[in-house]
Amino acid sequence: MLHFTGLRIAVLNNWSDEYLSCLNNSPTSYFHRQQKTMTQQHQALLAQAEQYDQTDTLAHYQEQFHFPLHNNGEPLRYFCGHSLGLQPKQAMQHVHLAMDIWRFQGIDHQFEGGKPWLKYMQDLNAGMATLVGADTAEVTVMNALTVNLHLLLASFFQPQGQRCKIVIEQGAFPSDRYAVISQLRWHGLDPERDLIEIAPAAGQRHVDEAQVEALLQAQGEQIALVMFPGVQFLTGQFFDLQRITRAAHQAGAMAGFDLAHAAGNLPLQLHDSGADFAAWCSYKYMNGSPGTLGGCFIHARHHGNPELVKLAGWWANAPETRFDMPVDIDWASGADAWQISNPPLLTAAPLIAALAIHNAAGMAALRSKSIALTGYLEQLLNTLLSDHCEIITPADPARRGCQLSMRVKAGTEQGEQLFQQLRNQGFICDWRRPDIMRIAPVPLYNSFADVRDLAVAMRNILVTL
Length: 465
Ligand SMILES: Cc1ncc(COP(=O)(O)O)c(C=O)c1O
What we know:
- The chain is α/β, with parallel strands linked by helices.
- Helices cover about 40% and strands about 10% of the residues.
- The chain folds into 2 domains: about 5-85 and about 365-460, Alpha-Beta Complex (Aspartate Aminotransferase, domain 1); about 90-360, Type I PLP-dependent aspartate aminotransferase-like (Major domain) (Aspartate Aminotransferase, domain 2, 3-Layer(aba) Sandwich), CATH 3.40.640.10.
- The chain has 17 helices and 15 strands.
- Pyridoxal-5'-phosphate binds near residues 144, 146, 175, 176 and 281.
């Protein structure tokens, strides 16, 4: 069991005498030597990392990942799990296994052998469903994220008469915006008129769920679909899926979600949220390999509905009769009815390895550590760096996942220098122009010491810029 609740309280409540005394007892680390200029309070805060790491029951998972190497041969400190997760060491073995299955079994591997290909995909669906809080039948693993969004929009964006508008957030990830605009055009609609983008209220940084509710109350009869992120890619804000879904349904609209930055990051209760559909990629917090298969959720209430349009291919046919090649499709049950083509086993192989690690650690334990880890980073940034940067991610842990985004107050040039110098010193973060740095401490492979060292490096760089 993890013991982060207490740690988190300590983090959020600031340092205490206990931590000041812990500083006196702690070994003399590189950073303690470096930080002679820091106040005793700062040093006490830095010293907490060692205690946290000592009680971290997930710490050993770090050994299950490959870290990219710095040019001095040392592993890089990696804070980019929100973009691309690290490679599980077991991934290569699974890829080799897939190659061997193909080599030694040829076509037989589809149905026979220790683990036939079809069984692989069923296991993937089940593993994914566990991670996102859905029934296995509600999840299917296929394609890439934007492709899946299009396939789901083909079913769930069915404009009729004046109910033809799509609602998204302003500042949505470009691929989502392009997807919905092209869907509107596909249906002969005008994106200028039929795409509604909700911007944060004046003076606010985040879109509030109440704004979605207000819009749906005011214009609900014109809205066919609300499509929102789970976690906003730039700010790291976590949206209340259930609340947005409820508002959409009350207005007679569908609700769908892009969970690219939420899946594997926070526990989700997709079934209970009532969402009509969701899609996500598996290469960020799920560490499944670049561009690997994405996940799709279709709520059980839509399964088996003959009225619902689905773009079909032979893999949407029930597995029992697929190879009978029926003239008319015999639909697979559940979300598998949205499949189109036969799945790529080589692409699935690393994802199988990654999901096994994720589910062994468990979303609840990962979330518990994540709250403490991100909370620690937040406290370090607010304490050591508040003159230089401002966190734009919500301060409430319930409204965010791993990621913290911060604005570099000095602007683009200094921000880029910070990013580059961090890279030179072995820290991988992510820079978004004009002035945002995204940092994702990932509980599967980041430690509290990583977070501490990053914050100290940032401070040392920023004071010289
Ligand atoms: C929020 C979000 N949506 C969509 C995408 C596009 O994903 P894909 O290239 O797998 O379609 C990404 C990629 O990073 C993303 O972050």
